[in-house]
Structure formats: C-alpha cells, structure tokens
Amino acid sequence: MAFPQTRMRRLRATAGLRGLVRETDLRPGQLVLPLFVAEPGSALASSAREPIATMPEVDRLSLTAAVEEAQAAAALGVGGVLLFGIPAEKDESGSGAWDDEGIVQLATRAIKQAVPGLLVLTDVCLCEYTTHGHCGVLRGDGGVDNDATLELLARTAVSHARAGADLVAPSDMMDGRVAAIRSELDGEGFAEIPILAYSAKFASAFYGPFREAADSAPASGDRRGYQMDPANGEEAVREALLDAGEGADMVMVKPALAYGDLIRAVKRATRLPVAAYNVSGEYAMVKAAAAAGYLDERATVLEILTSLRRAGADTIISYHAKDAARWLAEQT
Questions:
Q1: Active site residue 267
Q2: 120 assigned to some structural domain
Q3: Residue 75 is part of which domain span?
Q4: Which of 90, 112, 254, 322 is labelled catalytic?
C-alpha cells in the first residue's frame, strides 16, 4: 500500500522501534584483530612495541606484547587474532615460514597458552619471509613458480597447525594451494583444522600501509600476476567456488570497503562462511580523516563494519576490532 497508509518512518521513530526491526547485527565475536609479531633481531624489532607510522595506534609487537594484545582482545570479546610474522632473517625460498621455531609458531603457542579460548588464525604466505618479497618461489625469469610454491605453503600450514593454530589462512593466491594444504594437513593428522582461503584477493592500492608494517613489499615488480584485477567480479566468484571445491571451509574477500558487491556475490554462490578483510589502507583513511576532524571515528567505523555484515560477511578482520568491541559494549 502507498502513502499515506504506508509510512516507513513509523518504525524509525524511537531507538526501541529501530532495534526491534534491525536487520543486521554486529558483535565483537564476529571480529578478528590482525597482529604483526616481530622476531628479535628483525629489521623492525627495535622495542617491545614499534609504532607503525602509516597505521596510527597499530604496533609491531614483540612476543610478550603480542600476548598482551591477545589478552586485551579476548577481554573485549573479540573473536580471534590473525598473526603475521616478521622474521629476523629472510631467504630466497622463505624457509622461515615453515620453521617450527619461527615467530608465528612461537606466538601461536604463547597466545594459546595464555588465552586458550581465543581463536588464533595464521596467515600462510611466504612474502614476509622471502628476500624478494613475493608470495612464492621465483623462476629464473623473475615470475612466481605457482606449482613449486604449493609444497612450501602446505608445509607452512602444517607447521602452524602443529603450533596450535585454530585456523590457517593462505593469502598467496597460488592456484591449487587449498587442495595442497588440505591434503598435507589431513596426511599429518590435522584433518580438523579449517582453512580460510583468501579466495578473492585483489591487487589493491589499499595495501600500502600493510607492506610497511610487515616489511613485505616486493623488491621488484608487483603482484598483479597472481592477485586479482580489481575490475573483475565474475572471476572473484569463480575463484571462491574453486577454493570451495578444493576444500576451503571459509572464503575471504580482500579488501572489503570497495568490494561489498563481491562479498554478497561470493556468499550467495558458495554458501560458505565469508570473511571480509577491512585492510590497512581502509583503516588508515579513517584514522587520518578522524585526526583531521573530518569524520566522527566511532560512528564511521561502526557504520563500515555494519555495512560489511549487511553485505554478507560472517567474519570481519579489522585493525579497528578492539575499539569497535569497546564501543559496541558501551551501546548495550
């Protein structure tokens, strides 16, 4: 029925009415906080907490500081942490990634011991560990050798599982890596460890601050040969379906803010739990605008995160996670 019988504003008149018909919820348990953990002796580990200039209020962390951050996140009800390692040494193959005494493995064990109920997710990639900064083994012509990289990614995932990771998250964008990781996990007795595949990971300008934070920028070239073209949506759905077919338990769209259409499309196509990564550049933009007085940070962050849930994200990985959890608690 049309106006005046139908008045959409009737159910917006009070906070109680708005709450009664709210379609999308946002809870701290749906959020995951990324942590950058630096090994002693690494180029970026000069103190227990090293501020990241392009990401205000985000630090590179020592092992002890990472445990403290995890404890703080757990106390706020945040669902989990996602670990990125900054090793003391790098080599051509990224061997530090699958070292059982590597920084991610050490951090995983320490966090699980200190906060057993907090989920620990681990990033499975080689870029932070290679001297060249690419996500896989290089061929003689400088390109990434997809198939030679799969074994190393699978070995890394098993090492993370052995350390106690609750979920492994391959972010490399190599074809076939989910199947390789699933096979290796199952063969090593980790059939219960789920895989969150970075399925639709785009070659995005929004990653700039992360590359400084993790010291992972390519020494030459770029990653457009394996990360996705931001113009392609159907391809993103196809990538997610392929990963689902290889055994992914969850799939991810990254970045998040400009890709709400693909979060929705991937969710509908796969029917799997979908994660959205609210990436470093998205975080930095909000922080810069809020510092300049252009935006209300709290209102903006909660609106962004809610929009990602509305688009279909079941889980949101965000550097805002602790603040958002605190603000959500204040609303209840």
A1: no
A2: yes
A3: 26-331
A4: 254
Residue 254 annotated as catalytic: yes
Q: Could you give the CA distance from residue 175 to residue 127 in angstroms, rounded to a whole number? A: 16
Whose structure tokens read 């757990």? 74
The tokens describing 66, both together, are: 């990472």
Q: How far apart are CA 151 and CA 34, in angstroms?
A: 25
Q: 144 lies in a domain?
A: yes
The alpha helices in 164-233, defined as continuous H runs, are: 177-187, 208-214
Tally of residues, the chain: 332
Q: How many Cβ atoms from other residues are within 10 Å of residue 119's Cβ? A: 19
Contact predicate 324/318, CB 8 Å: yes
- Residue of 90, 201, 267, 287 marked catalytic: 201
- Helix ranges (H only) for 164-226 are 177-187, 208-214
Give the pair of three-digit tokens for residue 192. Answer: 């219960």
> Residue 200 belongs to a domain with what CATH number?
3.20.20.70
The model's pTM is 0.94
How high is the pLDDT of residue 133? Answer: 73
Mean pLDDT, contiguous 10-residue spans, the chain (332 residues): 91 94 96 94 68 94 96 98 94 90 97 97 92 80 88 97 98 95 98 97 92 69 82 98 98 97 98 97 97 98 98 98 97 78
Predicted local confidence at residue 144, as pLDDT: 85
Q: Is residue 11 part of a domain?
A: no
Q: How many domains does the chain have?
A: 1
Residue 122 pairs in a beta bridge with 83, 168
Q: Tell me, letter by letter, the H, E, C secondary structure of 117-156.
A: CCEEEEEECCCCCECCCCCCCECCCCCECHHHHHHHHHHH
CB 184 within 8 A of CB 153: no
